[in-house]
Structures are given as C-alpha cells and as structure tokens.
Design brief:
With 201 residues, the chain is an alpha/beta fold. It has five helices and nine strands.
C-alpha cells in the first residue's frame, strides 16, 4: 500500500484555542508517538483493563481504544456513563485504568464512589482543580493530569499528582511534555519568554 508515518490516520474537527472550527489532520506518526509515550509512562500490559467512557467524537477516545489494544490489554466500552453505570463497570470488570474529564470524576465522587485502590486515574479535557485532585487522589492508586489540544494529537503533557495537594495551587500543573515533543512559552510576538515569565503555550 505504500503507507508512511506521514499518511493521515484520521481527521477530527475542533474549534481548538482559536474558536474557529477546523479539521485537524492527524498523521500515523503522531498517533503512534502518543501511544508509545503513554505506554512508557503508564506501564500498561496485557493484564490491564481500561474502561473507555469517551464519545468517539472526542479525540481522547483514540487513547482509550488504541492504547489497550496496542499491548493486548482489555478494553471495556462503557454503555452507561452516569455515576451508577461507571461504578458498576469499574467493579464488575475489575478496571484498573480509566480516563475521564474532571467533571466525570467529580460526578463519581459526588455519587459517594469509594474509589478503587488498584485504579490508575487519568484526568484531562479541562483544568484539574486541586480539591478534586486531592479527593480523587486518596481513592485511587495514582492520578495523572493530562493536557493537550487536538492539534498536537490527544495529549501533549502529563503530570503525576501527589496524594496530598498543597495550597495555593488553584489547578494542578499540566506537567512535562510527552516523549519526542517540546513545549514553548511565547510572548505576543511569538518569541520565547525568559524562565519564570508569563507566556502563551
């Protein structure tokens, strides 16, 4: 077929940070890089089970589907994404990896979910407030904050939170760039800002 890493894996539409709808063309190399990077970070193996809760129209669903399949792990598709349904899936299928937005994690906690000591929780799609991180972090094996615009292929950075979140952070840091990527903080003229200065990511 003559496929190369530069061939398109998919196109996904987003307004991104500009507010203007556009199609983002994602290449095979970009998808493979995020999968390889998170496999290294998470240590996922064929013995793991991931609960896929994200709609296919959201790019982070790609991670939920491709990541477990890349190592022969189990992927469970959540038929119900309400708090009761998620708790049933987590318990019944012995899920040990789940990715969700802060709103979804808060929904679980607000429904008196006791947590799962073997669960690696991945959180992204919105800023992760420190109160949620602290509450969730005490109920799971690990909590990782993920950040990335669609244009950079699913996630760009990762941060492993601590169980005790210290003030005065309003939101949890987004962490460091994944493998084979870099982050630049730029000023209004597109030039790198000095260390410690405010800039656009």
């Amino acid at each position: 077929l003559g496929l190369t890493p530069r061939h398109l894996a998919y196109i996904i539409y987003t307004s991104g940070s500009t507010g203007t709808p556009k199609g983002v063309m994602v290449e095979h190399a970009s998808v493979l890089n995020i999968l390889r990077a998170l496999l290294d970070v998470l240590g996922l193996t064929e013995h793991d089970s991931l609960l896929a809760v994200t709609t296919i129209s959201f790019d982070i669903a790609g991670l939920e589907l491709y990541l477990p399949l890349a190592v022969g792990a189990n992927v469970v598709l959540a038929r119900r994404s309400n708090a009761v349904g998620l708790q049933q899936h987590l318990s019944h299928h012995k899920i040990n990896v789940m990715q969700a937005t802060p709103a979804a994690w808060r929904m679980l906690l607000d429904a008196d979910w006791e947590g799962a000591p073997d669960l690696s929780a991945l959180c992204g799609g919105e800023a992760l407030p420190s109160d949620l991180a602290s509450n969730l972090g005490r109920r799971v094996k690990s909590l990782r904050n993920l950040y990335g615009p669609t244009e950079t292929t699913i996630w760009s950075t990762t941060f492993l939170t601590e169980t005790r979140i210290e003030a005065p952070h309003r939101n949890i840091p987004i962490g460091r760039p994944i493998a084979n990527t870099r982050i630049y903080l730029l000023d209004a003229h597109g030039q790198p800002v000095p260390l410690g200065a405010v800039g656009e990511l």
